Structure to design on (1175 residues):
């Protein structure tokens, strides 16, 4: 149980599964299902064991092939990356469980094996980004991630998907290239690609080349901003996330975007170090953009008629919350941001999955057609309502706690203006989530009377939704479950200072 | 004269930046999807150029044992090795985007993004 | 044989359907309610008779249990989903479940008396919501909890027949009734701001579903207004909470109370903003005059049993929370130094007058009652704004008074809607001869509102006037007079039309009300309480006066 190789095994298992899935054959979907449903729990357990090990024995470093960190690839498994790896796998497990049934409805049957290959490569690259401590390796994983997420969108053979996917690809590539340029600029002054080594060098030389480092960070953050859909750079997100197959939407909105946020955190706090970042004045700009995004994302969401598009715009606003927490550049801010990463992943995937269930059952995407649907699909709509209340910030659901933590962090940093923005954004959230709940439960349906019946959905779709919604409530009432873990993870970014 | 000298000294960087800007300009302004992809390729090339030229050491030789004779100044091999990976990534992106363009052409009968947008808005209006 | 079976069976089902619709004189529900009533009388008389050392020592052993408040809190939340589940099987059993649940809660609340008679009882649920939930029950809270559970019991008994005939989606109604009950209990007991906020939000969401229950366009519109304003109010309370926490690092009201004076010295602006937003949020939720505009639509479009609890109790919870926060968390010194009492009393006076003036114009009886609630909130606020113990006692007395009167009035209005289907007060000619019991109850409650001596409403006005005079503000007494006069202007015409005008369609011959007993009994109980306490107000007043000394 004391194996240092465990994180690598996770990656290898995922990659191997991705390779084996197409070999199993196109017709044997049940076999693929069985395989995935064994591999995912196994990786989950390995990841959990790794996390326990980290908590027991402290973080450890994994050098690939024992190359020195100056030229080799290095993984750092600390409280942060182990926790986030576990988080990614947990969310992926529920979403993939849901997708097993839903995907039959979304794409053609000859694409199943292709789809799951892509999903597993996606998971592989996300975990890679989380664990890696090497800038170029990070870039490569990011490229894999963006290619697979584009393909996941375009796998649905529709015109809109091709267009959304192309736009996503172009912008993502521009983002990656700008990150790569940033990496090159940093390499120029530090001569290191390893984050720890580079950070040590930057701490020594940043006074000599401040503009150089500022430009490098600027390029990197802009690139990451495109990928993480920070407000003015979000234009690809609504199309991409709304046209993708629903389980992928949940994965993209809930987890993939968060992985880019992890890299931003790594760049800001691990590579640059908090003091340098602060004296370069970066955090202030991040908070400005975050605040604008929080408001504008919600404002755009209000106008949407398509439920998945609305959820996608809401993601833009929620990413604003996370970046606000980062931009405060304090421990509280970072913990609040990480807490919101997790709670938003739960809420948004619950929302996407329930929206997917509605589309699966009723074929309706327009929010004006949802009258009385709460009586036709009560479980689905209760899940939706819980998650939506979480977004609005009703206490007892995790969204409220992340708002509370964020408010405290904002006040702690003595920037009370942002408190008002958080609350205004919550109100805007209410404006677009409440009408759906109201029409679902309080308006008579056009085709049928509002008589309660159980959802006519496969169990495989209901169980993940209900589990995630329960997760929202449990974390809502006992936020320490997550907050304690997060607070252990945060100091890894503040050690150098 | 100094200015000229510094330009000549940094010609690789200037070239890289110029290529980057040209590429970005192409991506953002051209409506033809194929040209956008070409623009992306130009951007990629610029960064590869930039990255590789970082590794250049004046008077260095390629870092292969005994090739340089007695001289011990080698160029930095790491960027070149990395850019090899970068080129692979770039090629796969290009391939994927070209296949997407093919699909879009099949679907809309055009490669011009403005025309595609027009077609799409017509479709939604109906 | 088989075919005849097939023919007979549906008939049987039809029979049973009919019987459940028409409700025999002695159905399960009435029997159950009767049994509860008997148990209650037995228990109270037993307690009074056994109120010796022996009896109370036995009770203490049985009832002294620190877990009781948790049970009180959790019962409604458990009963709510259960009621939906049972409701699909049998509506009668669902109603019986609800009434029994509330009755058990009532008994549990009563049993708490031994704990809080001379002090208070604190309960902590650690770790929940990250900061733990803190509850504290003192005499005042106990009194309001008792009122709430009594009111809910009456409403649920009343709702049994009323809802069956008048409304659809009854499962949903009982579900949210129950959740609201839990929210009210929690908000009353809450000792820290976060807990308070949690239960506020639970309350406003569940009340939203009660308000928009009819699903008519006007109800949905009223509901929309209600919930969006509720969200704004909630967010403004959240803002204020965060500001207070930032300076004091605690949510617990008593601790805030001890820390505020020091913080006030250094951060006046900060605390002032916090107070303003807190009051703004609470003012929206408790419909204090300029922010009352959501109330009339919301309370009148809700089904009558829930109108009664919305006006009777839910508003009061927010007002009680204002008292808690102002006097225990913020503290008298800070309040007086920013001249808050003046602001509050001004708002109160304006509300008292304007609420009544707006009520005069109303044609719909439930809307009129709702506007009257706006005016009555003004009375309570006036008592609070005097910032003396007498004023507070008067305000609390009026909270109870108004709960009794307003719920009686709403019950009567509901009975009229039930029997006659009329909501317009101009069509009530001679209704007193058709529904004598209902209209007598209505008259008692209305006279009480106007302030006829011998009824409870008079006493609360009396206490309020005394409080105003003792703090040297005789102007307020005049204002109370004017407001009472305005009350008379809209209540008296109804009574006059009901008893003294001939109906167009029928002669004014006295007949018995054709309203089920389950609806009559709650009305009569409320009205008789109005009279009894009206004659013996010192029972309640002594209790409140003692409670206030223990409150701080």
């Amino acid at each position: 149980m004391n194996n240092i190789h465990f994180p690598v095994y996770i990656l290898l298992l995922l990659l191997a599964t991705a390779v084996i899935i197409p070999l199993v054959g196109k017709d044997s979907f049940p076999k693929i299902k069985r395989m995935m449903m064994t591999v995912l729990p196994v990786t989950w357990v390995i990841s959990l064991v790794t996390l326990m090990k980290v908590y027991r024995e402290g973080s450890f470093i994994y050098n690939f092939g024992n190359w020195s960190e100056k030229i080799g690839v290095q993984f750092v498994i600390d409280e942060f990356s182990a926790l986030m790896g576990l988080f990614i796998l947990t969310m992926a497990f529920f979403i993939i469980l849901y997708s097993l049934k839903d995907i039959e409805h979304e794409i053609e049957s000859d694409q199943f094996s292709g789809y799951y290959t892509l999903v597993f490569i996606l998971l592989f690259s996300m975990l890679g980004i989380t664990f890696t401590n090497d800038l170029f390796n990070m870039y490569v994983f990011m490229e894999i991630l963006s290619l697979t997420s584009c393909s996941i969108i375009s796998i649905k053979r529709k015109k809109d998907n091709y267009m959304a996917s192309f736009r996503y690809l172009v912008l993502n590539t521009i983002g990656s290239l700008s990150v790569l340029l940033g990496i090159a600029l940093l390499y120029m002054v530090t001569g290191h690609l390893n984050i720890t080594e580079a950070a040590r060098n930057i701490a020594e030389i940043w006074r000599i080349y401040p503009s150089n480092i500022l430009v490098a960070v600027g390029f990197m953050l802009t690139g990451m901003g495109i990928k993480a859909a920070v407000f003015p750079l979000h234009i690809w997100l609504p199309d991409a996330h709304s046209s993708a197959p629903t389980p992928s939407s949940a994965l993209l909105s809930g987890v993939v975007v968060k992985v880019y946020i992890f890299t931003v955190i790594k760049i800001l706090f691990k590579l640059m170090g908090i003091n340098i970042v602060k004296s370069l004045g970066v955090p202030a700009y991040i908070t400005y953009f975050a605040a604008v995004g929080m408001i504008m994302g919600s404002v755009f969401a209000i106008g949407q008629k398509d439920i998945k598009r609305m959820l996608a715009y809401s993601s833009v606003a929620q990413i604003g919350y996370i970046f606000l927490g980062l931009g405060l550049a304090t421990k509280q801010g970072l913990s609040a941001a990480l807490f919101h990463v997790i709670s938003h992943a739960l809420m948004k995937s619950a929302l996407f999955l329930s929206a997917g269930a509605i589309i699966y059952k009723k074929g309706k995407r327009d929010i004006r057609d949802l009258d009385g649907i709460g009586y036709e699909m009560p479980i689905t709509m209760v899940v939706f309502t819980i998650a939506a209340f979480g977004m609005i910030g009703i206490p007892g659901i995790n969204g409220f706690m992340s708002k509370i933590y964020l408010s405290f962090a904002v006040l702690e940093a003595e920037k009370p203006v942002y408190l008002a923005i958080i609350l205004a954004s919550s109100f805007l959230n209410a404006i677009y989530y409440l009408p759906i709940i109201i029409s679902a439960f309080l308006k008579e349906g056009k085709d049928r009377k509002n008589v309660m019946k159980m959802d006519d959905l496969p169990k495989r779709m209901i169980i993940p939704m209900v589990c995630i919604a329960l997760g929202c409530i449990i974390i809502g009432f006992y936020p320490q479950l997550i907050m304690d873990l997060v607070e252990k993870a945060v100091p890894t970014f503040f050690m150098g200072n | 004269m100094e200015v000229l000298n510094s330009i000549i000294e940094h010609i690789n960087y200037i070239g890289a930046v110029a290529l980057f800007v040209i590429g970005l300009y192409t991506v953002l302004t051209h409506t033809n999807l194929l040209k956008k992809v070409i623009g992306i390729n130009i951007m990629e090339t610029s960064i590869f150029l930039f990255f590789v030229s970082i590794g250049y050491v004046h008077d260095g030789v390629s870092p292969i044992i005994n090739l340089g004779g007695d001289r011990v100044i080698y160029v930095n091999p790491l960027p070149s090795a990395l850019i090899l990976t970068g080129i692979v990534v770039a090629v796969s992106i290009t391939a994927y985007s070209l296949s997407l363009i093919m699909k879009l052409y099949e679907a809309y009968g055009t490669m011009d993004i403005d025309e595609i947008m027009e077609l799409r808005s017509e479709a939604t209006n109906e | 044989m088989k075919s005849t079976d097939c023919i007979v069976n549906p008939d049987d089902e039809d029979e049973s359907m009919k019987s459940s619709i028409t409700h025999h004189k002695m159905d399960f529900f009435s029997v159950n309610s009767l049994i509860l009533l008997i148990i209650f009388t037995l228990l109270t008389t037993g307690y009074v008779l056994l109120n010796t050392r022996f009896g109370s020592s036995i009770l203490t052993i049985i009832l002294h249990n620190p877990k009781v408040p948790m049970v009180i809190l959790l019962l409604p939340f458990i009963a709510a989903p259960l009621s939906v589940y049972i409701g699909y099987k049998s509506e009668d059993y669902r109603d019986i479940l609800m009434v029994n649940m509330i009755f058990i809660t009532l008994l549990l609340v009563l049993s708490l008396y031994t704990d809080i008679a001379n002090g208070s009882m604190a309960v902590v649920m650690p770790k929940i919501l990250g900061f733990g939930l803190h509850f504290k029950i003192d005499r005042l809270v106990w009194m309001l909890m008792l009122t709430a559970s009594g009111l809910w019991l009456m409403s649920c008994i009343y709702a049994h027949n009323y809802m069956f005939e008048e409304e659809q989606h009854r499962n949903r109604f009982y579900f949210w009734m129950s959740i609201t009950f839990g929210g009210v209990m929690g908000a009353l007991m809450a000792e820290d701001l976060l807990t308070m906020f949690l239960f506020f939000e639970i309350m406003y969401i569940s009340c939203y579903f009660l308000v928009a229950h009819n699903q008519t366009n006007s109800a949905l519109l009223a509901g929309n207004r209600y919930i969006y304003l509720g969200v704004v109010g909630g967010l403004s309370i959240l803002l204020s909470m965060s500001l207070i926490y930032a300076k004091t690092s605690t949510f617990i009201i008593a601790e805030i109370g001890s820390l505020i004076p020091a913080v006030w010295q250094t951060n006046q602006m900060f605390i002032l903003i916090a107070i303003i937003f807190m009051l703004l949020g609470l003012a929206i939720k408790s419909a204090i005059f300029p922010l009352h505009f959501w109330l009339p639509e919301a309370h009148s479009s809700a089904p009558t049993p829930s109108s009664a609890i919305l006006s009777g109790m839910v508003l009061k919870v927010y007002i009680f929370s204002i008292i808690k926060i102002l006097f225990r968390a913020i503290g008298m010194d800070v309040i007086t130094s920013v001249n808050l009492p003046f602001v509050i009393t001004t708002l109160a006076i304006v509300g008292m007058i304007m609420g009544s003036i707006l009520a005069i114009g109303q044609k719909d009886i439930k809307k009129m009652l709702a506007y009257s609630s706006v005016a009555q909130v003004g009375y309570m606020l006036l008592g609070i704004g005097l910032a003396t113990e007498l004023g507070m006692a008067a305000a609390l007395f009026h909270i109870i008074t108004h709960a009794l009167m307003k719920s009686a009035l709403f019950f009567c209005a509901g009975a009229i809607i039930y029997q006659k289907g009329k909501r317009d007060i101009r069509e009530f000619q001679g209704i007193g001869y058709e529904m004598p019991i209902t209209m007598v109850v209505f008259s008692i409650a209305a006279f009480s509102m106007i302030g006829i001596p011998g009824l409870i409403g008079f006493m609360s006005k009396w206490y309020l006037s005394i409080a105003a005079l003792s703090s040297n503000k005789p102007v307020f007494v005049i204002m109370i007079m004017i407001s009472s006069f305005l009350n008379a202007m809209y209540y008296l015409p109804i009574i006059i039309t009901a008893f003294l005008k001939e109906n167009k369609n029928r002669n004014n011959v006295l007949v018995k009300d054709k309203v089920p007993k389950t609806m009559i009994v709650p009305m009569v109980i409320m009205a008789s309480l109005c009279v009894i306490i009206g004659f013996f107000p010192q029972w309640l007043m002594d209790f409140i006066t003692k409670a206030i000394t223990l409150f701080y």
